[in-house]
Structure formats: structure tokens, C-alpha cells
Amino acid sequence: MERLTKRQQEVYEFISEKIHSRGYGPTVREIGSAFNISSPNGVMCHLRALEKKGLIIREANMSRAITLASDTPENRGLPLAGRIAAGMLHEAIEQNERVDFGEMFGSDDMFVLEVSGDSMIEDQIADGDYVVCRKQDTAQKGQIVVALTDDNEATLKRWYPEGNRIRLEPANSSMKPIYVDNARVLGVVTGVVRQVR
After folding, report:
1. Residues 64, 109: one domain?
2. Residue 31 burial (C-beta neighbours within 10 Å; 0-12, 13-18, 19+)
3. Which residues are registered as beta bridge partners of 131?
């Protein structure tokens, strides 16, 4: 691979940091602003050089469509090593696949919240876990939702509309449900991520 100039290295690191911290690349304007490059054409010269050197891939006619060449689909995600028994014992068979959680959870209508408290522990959602939610304003009875009350308080609970009130049900038998006249669904939980400490 051809060596990068100091500025090309800096631009590449900036692009990489933006992609990894927020999930998508910077615009030409953002790059220009970060490096005091007043001309969009000046930024494009750096992008063309990085593309030519095989470090980035750009989609035509899309302002934010810069991806890192090292993040190609075959390199993304974590290795799927196989299946593990949590019940009966099974023969260990190694697999050669990858699981990209970004594909499962990476669409624009998803968001993540860090859980604070233990009101959902019986649904295996503990303090410090991250819940992945799909943005939507409706939910089916019994779904785990992010709900916003009229007092502008957000909570993670099971959703039960009951006539002229809503029951926000914790998954913790030591806690009582919350009853409100009105609440909005902000999202429905689709996944939980736990970092084992």
C-alpha cells in the first residue's frame, strides 16, 4: 500500500473515528471544517487519494457514504464460533461465519439506551445493560417499551392499555405497576446487550 501524507493520515483517522463513534462517515463539509480546508474540492482531493490507496470506499451521489475498506461485509461483525448448549450437551462444531450486530440493530429507526435500575430484572434486563429499541409510537399489549408520561418522565416497562388508563408493568415482583392517564410510546425493545464485568 502507498504511504499516506501526514494530512491524508489525519483525514483517514478523522473519518474512521466518526464512523466508529456514530455509525456513519462525515460529510465533505465536516471534513473541511475539521481541517480548515475552505474548498470542497480540496477535501475531495484527499478523499480521492484515500480511495486510490484502498483505505476508503465512496458511494457516488451520496454525501455521507464513506466506508472504511477494512469494514467490508466479510470483515464486519464477530466470528460465529458455533452453538453452545445451555441445556442438553451437544457436540462442539466450529463454524466459519460472522455475525454483524450492526446489520441486526443498525438501521436509522433504532436507538440504544443504558438501563438504570432493576425494575426489569425478571425480563433479564439489568442495571447497566443496554436496550436496543425500534423507534415507533405504538406497541402491542405486553411489549417492553420506552414510555414517556405527561410529566415528561421516561421509563422502561411492559405496556398495558386498560380502558381510560395505561398500566406500565415492571418485571420485578417486588415493585408495583405505574398507572397513568396518558403516556406515549417512544420505542419498543428489540434486543439487550450486556457487558459481563
Report:
1. no
2. buried
3. 113, 192
Q: What is the identity of the amino acid at 186?
A: L
List 6, 119, 141, 174, catalytic entry: 119
The verdict on whether 157 is a catalytic residue reads yes
Listed residues 48, 71, 94: the one ending a domain? 71
State which amino acid sits at residue 30: E
136 with 58, same domain: the answer is: no
What's 121's domain CATH number? 2.10.109.10
> Could you tell me the residue range of the domain that residue 13 belongs to?
6-71
Rounded to a whole number, what is the largest CA-CA distance in the chain? Answer: 68
pLDDT digit string (tens) for 181-197? 999 998 899 888 887 76
Q: Is pLDDT at 142 greater than 60 in this prediction? A: yes
Q: Which of 71, 89, 113 is the last residue of a domain?
A: 71
| Annotated catalytic residue within 157, 173, 174, 176 | 157
The 8-class DSSP code of residue 73 comes to T
Q: Is residue 80 part of a domain?
A: no
Flag whether 85 is in a domain. Answer: no
Grid cell for residue 78: 464477530
Query: Would you call 10 helix, strand, or coil by DSSP?
Result: helix
Q: For 22-61, what is each residue's pLDDT tens digit? A: 777 888 888 999 999 988 898 989 998 998 888 888 876 5
